[in-house]
Each structure stands twice: as C-alpha cells, then as structure tokens.
Design goal:
The complex is a heterodimer. Chain A is mostly beta strands. Helices cover 11% and strands 41% of the residues of chain A. The model of chain A is unreliable at 24-92, 165-175, 278-295, 380-401, 474-478, 484-498, 584-606 and 608-658 (pLDDT under 50). Classes of the chains: A mainly beta, B mainly beta.
C-alpha cells in the first residue's frame, strides 16, 4: 500500500519537470535576446561564401554575387576553399609591408610603388591586395569548385594544379584530305579505292582404316579311359576391342587427354557400384569461339573424311570330352565373350574440362545399382532439354552467302553371332545333368548428328545386358539401352560477312564381325559321370557415331559402357533396393522356394519419363532359368520391399505358420499331464 | 555448321591479317594550278600474296600379337593331381595423333590496311580547273592448303590356351584349360588447322 506522502512527493516532482519543459523556450529567448520571427527576418547579414557551392543556387545570402576565390599559390595549395583574391578592406594606417604567412614572399617594387610577389600586388596606401592577372574564374558544377584558365581544382589530391590544355585529337582517319583556296567553278576530287580480293581454298582429305582381328581360343579338354577322374573344364575366352576415331574433331583440347578406365568384375556382384566423375583430375575447362566479320572474302573448304573399321572378333572356348571313364566329374566348357566398343567422331568437337571413357564388364550377375553422385545426376536431369539441329535459315543478322554441303554417310555392317556348344551325354551308366549355355548377341548404336550441346556436364551411357535387366536407365525413353544426359542450347553465329563454299563429305563404314562360341561338351560311355554343361557365349557391339556435332562442356563428359554378361537387377542412376542388405530379417521363413512366394517388380519407363512397376513372376522369367533365384531373393524383397514413387507399392505376404501357441499349449498340457500323473502315482503308492 | 562457320572465321582471320609489310603511304598534292587546267595525281599499288601449303602424312601401325599356352597331357598314370594349361592373354594400346597446322603461314602473311596513311590535298587551284587526286590499292591474297592424312592400323591378336588330355589313368584329378583373352585400345585423332 502506497503511502499518501509518497504519492504527493511523486506528483510534486512530475509537476516540476513539466514546468521546466514548458518554460525552457522562454529561457532560450531570454538568453539570445533576439525574438523569434518567421519569414521576414530570414534575410540575415550572413557572409558565408562556400566556394564549393554554386552561387546560382545560393539563397541564404544577400551578397549581390559571391566573391570567387582565387587559386592558391603553388607553395600553399588550398583544398576546397581557395583563398579570396580580395583580402577585404584594410586599414590605411596599417603596416607598411605585407603581413601574414606569405608576407615574406613580397618585395617592394620602386617602379610601381607596390609590394609584389608572383601573384599579387599589395598596396601599402590602401592596405589591399590585388591579383596580378585576371583569373577568369569559372565555376565548375561538376566538381563544385572554381576553375581558372591556369589552375583547376584536382579533387583526388584536394589541390589546385596547373591547367593542362589537352592536345588536339590525332587525326585517325585513314585518308587525310585538305583543300585550300580552290578556284571558282573548279572541279576538285580526292578519292581512294581499295580492292581486296581474298581467296582461301582448303582441301583436306583424311582416311583412317582399322583392321583389327582378334581371336581368343581356349584349349580342348579330354578325359578318357580313366578309372577315377575329376572335373574337366575348358577356360574362358574373352575378346575386347575399344576403338576411338576422331577426324577433324577434338576432344578435350583444354583439359588434356580424357581418362580411360576399364573394370572387369568376375563373378556375381551384390551391392551398388558408385562412379564419381568429379574425382577426375584436371581443371574445368571453357570453350571460346571467335567471331569475325569480313568482306570480299571467298572461302572454299572441302573436307573429305573416311573412317573404315574392319573388326573381327572371335572368342571360342575349347571342347570338353569325357569318355570311357569308370567315374568322372563334371564336364564343362568355358564361357566365350566378345565385345567391341567403337566411337567415331567426324567434324565434331568435344570440349570438356574433364572427360572419361569407362568400360565396366561384369562377367556374372549384378545385384545392385550403378550410381553417380546424386547432385550431379540431378543437375544433369534438371538441365536436360530437347536437342536441336542447327538450321542455317534461322541464323539472324547474317549476310553470309554460303554454299554449304555436308554429307555424311554411315554404313554399319555388323555380324554378331554367338553360339553355345553342343552337349552330348550318351551311353553312360549314370550321368548328371546335361545343359547347354546361353547364347546372346547385343548391338547398341547411338548416333549424334548435327547436335550442339552446351552445358556443364554430359554423360553418354551404353547399357548392354546380355541376361535380363530388371531396372531402368535414368531419364531414357522407354525401351532404350543408350542415353545422353546433359543440357542443351543452340548457338547461332552472327555478323558474318563472307562468301563461303564448304563441302564436307564424310563416310563412316563399320564392318564388324563378332563371333563367340563356347565349346562342345561330350560325356559318353562312362560308368558314372557328373554334369555336362557348355558355357555361355555372347557377342556385343556398342557403337557411337558423332558427326557434325559440338559438345561444349565446362565440367566433364563421360562415356560409359556397361556390359553385364549375366543378369542385372538394378538401375543406372536410380538407387533402388537392389543390392541393399535387408534391414530386417523375417522372423520365420519357410523353406519353400523363394520365387514361388515373393512378388518381384521391375521398373518400366513410360513415355512421360516416369516409371511403372511391372510384376515379374517366376513363370515369365523363362529366359534366365538359372539366375532367377539368385536375383530375386525372397529375403531381400521381403525385408525391404521396393521404394519408389509409384503409388501401387507392392506388398508381400508369407504363408509361414506361428507355432508359439501350440508349443505353449503343448508344454502346458504336458505339465498338467505330468502333474496329474504325479498325483496319481502318489495316490497309488499311498494307497 | 558451327565447324564451317569457324573455318570461315579462320579464313577471314587469315585474310585480315595480311601483314604489316605491304602498308603503303601515298601522298598526292595539287597546288597553284592554272585557270582551266587539268591536273591529276593517280597512285596505284598492287599487292599479290599467294601461299600454298601441301601436306601429306601417312602412317601405318602393324601390331601382331600371339599368345599361346602349351598343351598338357597326363596319360597312363596311377594317380595324377590334375592337369591344367596356362592362360593366354594379349593387350595392346595405340594412341595416334596426326596434326597439321597451317595457321602459322597465314599469320606471317602481310596485313591489308587499306591505304592507312594516304593523304591528298588540293590548294590554290585555278578557276575552272580540274584537279583530281586518286589513290588505288589492289590487294590479292590467295591461300591454298592441301592436306592429306592417311593412317592404317593393323592389329592382330591371337590368344590360345593349350589343350589338356588325361587318359588311361587310375585316378586323375581335374583337367582344365586356361583362359584366353585379348584386349585392344585404339585411339586415332586427326586434326587439321588452316
């Protein structure tokens, strides 16, 4: 509770403060001794003259005109307020010689009777200074200072510096013409005629011929008339040819050579493969194209280029013969794989800071994805746009008269054959299975013609799966096994003034014969013999032709060949569940075959670059009877399932039975029964 | 298309760089002519520059490779541990770059400057007189580049692993022939700069 005294004291203090505030102006007036007035009293006798202020904008002074300052002496430069040339009225009865800091610079001139220095007179009679010369002051609104014909104010240094009259601009005209005093009705002419006839003729003929013949053969294996013999197996035969031809083309001129890596992975693979292009050495690269306008220039260019690839690849594993043995093991011929990767470039350029050509051969089954860093992939996809051909008629602001002829013919004569060996199992008392291997051929061709790709990154991907591919190539059309990623822009060249006749004739001929054959297997006339199996055979060709195209990439370009000689359960660029370890193990799992219980789905690209899930059942997987159980493992599918954007998320169920209650019931029943029997036994003995 | 335009630009650079050696300075002056007189100063310079580059490059690569592992035979033995032939492997890498650059000859050519320092003056001419100062520069520049590049790559690879034979043995181990593989990497790059 506040006391009345306290309230009264506070109120008193507040009143005193209010009185001080209200009474303060009156006190101020009393101190000045000048009453306040508005309007009429504003024309004071102020003598303020700001040399940096334009006098035409000065409204606060009553002086008829501002007294312009005079330039300072060089020894005592002034900054923004040059000294006044009129130092004001002086008292006649003053000193007889100039005073002040510069008084020592004056000397008395008996002829004039004045004191003088280099710039001023001083009259002892009038006690006034006068400049020796008319400074012709001019106010410079740009710098806000006064200038003279001899001096100017230099803002950076804050001093007056001598005026320097700029020299007359040199005559830059190509033709100097002068006339003086021509007569009446005279005819006078000065002319200059320049005739430039330029002709540039270029004939270039280039030819590349590759004659590549490769044969890989493994030896035959024979086991005969042995009492007890082990397995008989012939080795694997592999042929790989990587060919890159570049005619009047360039690849990575600023970034140096491209990086080449090749990886051969044998056996079944589980897990994702990760490729990081950013880890490549080299710096970013840029590509600049000069533009120039010329007149009266005839350019004739004829480029004839020809690429001929005669490639013959053959891989053959040896025959296996197990004959007349009492007991022998398995008889198996090796696998035969032949792969050709060919890149032909003609009249094209690829400029990239870093480039790589990768070749991944997986000799087996792959359960996992092939991935690149997510940020790079997203950037690729985000910038992906439709590619376009350059249309000459769409070039604007060009007076080029051009006769362009660009003829490129591409002939691909490919002959791919693959055959697995025959298997014979005859007249054996006891024999295992007789199985013939798979035979696959795969041809992948990607043509880039008349494309101009300008961007940061690009990736060309070839996917070659000889078995069954359960996955998707990111951002590729439905059914595609090759795709190009990257952003695209079309650049038009402008402001050309030339006559151009260019004729480019290019011819690319690929004569490729690839043959893969696994050896025959014969297991006959044995008392007991194991399985007889011929190896798989595959012949593959990945062919990339780039003609009249330009890829300008500031960062990197990748060409990636992925050859999977088995079955691939996974995707490129999409991190699916393939290859992932199951996050949880099913509590109980029946021993029934997995493929009969699990439902497995695969990604199928649609036209709108989305995906749909398509069920894969064991009955439809007839092309890969041996790989199905390995890929479509029930534990993986059941444990994690498939996670994707598709709304029809698959669900899985198992038919395993829970034995917990029966077991508990069994134990309970047994315990009760035992207890009852114990009681009965005791009662019997007591009785 | 881009390639052609670039080539055009290169040719234009060639012609516009017609070097400093041919620049001529012509001066014509007509002064104090008589009445009704006809006075002319005609100056003509003719410059012809021709450059021809003929280049023919031919290369051949012959690379025969043969790898063979031996045959293995184990016959008429009581016991053999097994028989296996070795692996046979060939690998080759070819990087061939053929490059022709004619741009240096173009850079050495004189520069056309269109009579950079010409001057003409007509002073104090007579009444009714005709006075003409004409300057003409004729420059003809011709560049002919003929380039022929030819390369032939003969690559032959043969890998054979040996046969394996086990006959008439009481107890014989496994018999396996070795693997055979060939790998060739070929890169050929032709480049012509005019």
């Amino acid at each position: 509770m506040i006391q009345p005294k306290t309230i009264l004291r506070r109120l008193l203090v507040a009143i005193v403060v209010m009185i001080q505030i209200v009474a303060y102006p009156a006190v101020g007036w009393a101190d000045d001794g000048t009453p306040s007035s508005d309007g009429a009293g504003s024309t004071t006798t102020s003598t303020t003259t700001d040399p940096s202020t334009d006098p035409t904008q000065s409204t606060t002074t009553t002086d008829p005109a501002p007294v312009p300052p005079t330039p300072p002496t060089p020894e005592t430069p002034n900054t923004e307020t040059p000294p006044a040339d009129d130092r004001g009225p002086q008292t006649p009865a003053g000193p007889t010689s100039p005073t002040g800091p510069d008084g020592q610079t004056y000397q008395y001139n008996p002829a004039t009777g004045l004191w003088e220095n280099d710039y001023y007179y001083w009259n002892a009679a009038t006690q006034q200074y006068a400049p020796k010369s008319n400074p012709n002051l001019v106010y410079d609104t740009a710098s806000g200072t006064w200038q003279t014909t001899q001096w100017r104010f230099d803002a950076p240094t804050g001093n007056y510096v001598p005026q320097v009259t700029p020299a007359a601009a040199p005559n830059t005209s190509r033709l100097s013409v002068g006339t003086l005093g021509t007569g009446a009705q005279s005819n006078n002419g000065i002319s200059q005629l320049n005739n430039l006839n330029g002709s540039f003729n270029s004939n270039t003929s280039m030819s590349v011929t590759n004659l590549i013949t490769q044969g890989a053969y493994t030896g035959d294996v024979s086991l005969g008339q042995n009492t007890l013999a082990g397995n008989a197996r012939s080795g694997n035969a592999n042929d790989t040819a990587n060919i890159i031809n570049m005619l009047q083309s360039s690849w990575g001129p600023t970034g140096g050579d491209y990086n080449v890596f090749s990886a051969n992975l044998y056996g079944d693979m589980t897990g994702d493969l990760f490729i990081d292009p950013s880890a490549l050495a080299g710096s970013g690269a840029n590509l600049n194209v000069d533009k120039q306008t010329n007149a009266n220039v005839d350019v004739n260019i004829a480029n004839d280029g020809e690429i001929v690839n005669n490639v013959n690849l053959k891989a053959q594993s040896g025959n296996v013969d197990v004959n007349g043995n009492s007991q022998a093991g398995d008889a198996e011929s090796g696998a035969a794989h032949a792969v050709g990767n060919i890149v032909n470039m003609m009249n094209s350029s690829i400029a990239a800071g870093q480039s790589f050509i990768g070749n991944i051969n997986i000799y087996g089954n792959l359960d996992g994805d092939i991935l690149i860093p997510p940020d790079i992939l997203q950037q690729l996809i985000a910038n992906n746009g439709p590619q376009a051909n350059v249309d000459v008629s769409q070039i604007e602001n060009t007076n080029i008269l051009a006769d362009l002829s660009d003829t490129t013919s591409i002939v691909n004569n490919t002959d791919l054959s693959a055959a697995s060996g025959s298997v014979t199992s005859n007249a054996n008392t006891q024999a295992g299975d007789a199985t013939s291997g798979k035979a696959e051929t795969n041809l992948t061709v990607l043509n880039l013609t008349g494309k101009q790709v300008v961007g940061k990154d690009a990736l060309l991907v070839f996917v070659n799966v000889l078995g069954k591919w359960v996955g998707v190539l990111m951002n590729a059309p439905a059914g595609a096994t090759a795709g190009a990623f990257g952003d695209t822009n079309v650049n038009n060249t402008t402001n050309l003034n030339a006559t151009l006749a260019a004729k480019n004739t290019g011819k690319i001929t690929n004569n490729v014969a690839i043959d893969a054959q696994s050896g025959d297997v014969n297991a006959s006339n044995n008392t007991k013999v194991g399985n007889a199996r011929s190896g798989n055979a595959s012949a593959s060709l990945n062919l990339l032709n780039i003609s009249s195209s330009e890829l300008s990439l500031s960062n990197w370009l990748g060409v990636l060949f992925i050859n999977v000689f088995g079955t691939w359960n996974g995707s490129f660029g999409v991190n699916t569940d393939a290859g992932n370890k199951p996050t949880s193990t099913p509590t109980t799992q029946s021993a029934a075959p997995a493929t009969t219980q699990a439902k497995v789905f695969r990604f199928v690209p649609t036209a709108n670059n989305k995906f749909q899930l398509e069920p894969v059942t064991g009955s439809t997987d007839d092309t890969t009877p041996t790989s199905g159980p390995q890929v479509l493992t029930a534990s993986k599918v059941i444990g994690t399932g498939h996670t994707n954007n598709n709304t029809s998320t698959p669900t899985f169920s198992t038919s395993s039975r829970d034995w917990t209650l029966p077991i508990i019931g069994l134990f309970s029943g047994a315990a009760l029964l035992g207890f009852e029997r114990a009681l009965a036994f005791r009662q019997r003995h007591l009785a | 298309m881009k390639k052609l335009l670039r080539a055009t630009a290169g040719a234009a650079v060639t012609l516009s760089f017609l070097g400093a050696g041919v620049v001529s300075a012509q001066t014509g002056t007509i002064g104090t002519t008589g009445q009704g007189s006809n006075n002319q100063v005609n100056s003509t310079t003719n410059t012809t520059v021709s450059t021809s580059n003929g280049t023919s490059v031919s290369g051949t690569n012959n690379n025969p490779q043969d790898a063979d592992s031996g045959n293995v035979t184990a016959n008429n033995n009581t016991t053999t541990d097994g028989a296996a032939s070795g692996a046979a492997m060939n690998s080759s890498t070819l990087n061939a770059t053929l490059s022709v650059d004619n741009s240096s000859s173009a850079a050495a050519m004189p520069v056309f400057d269109g009579g950079a320092s010409d001057s003409g003056s007509i002073n104090l001419t007579g009444q009714g007189s005709t006075n003409l100062v004409n300057s003409t520069h004729n420059t003809t520049v011709t560049t002919n580049n003929s380039t022929s590049l030819t390369f032939t790559n003969n690559n032959h690879q043969d890998a054979d692993s040996g046969n394996v034979t086990q006959n008439n043995n009481t107890t014989a181990g496994s018999a396996q022939s070795g693997d055979a593989s060939n790998t060739s990497n070929t890169t050929i790059n032709f480049s012509v700069t005019n």
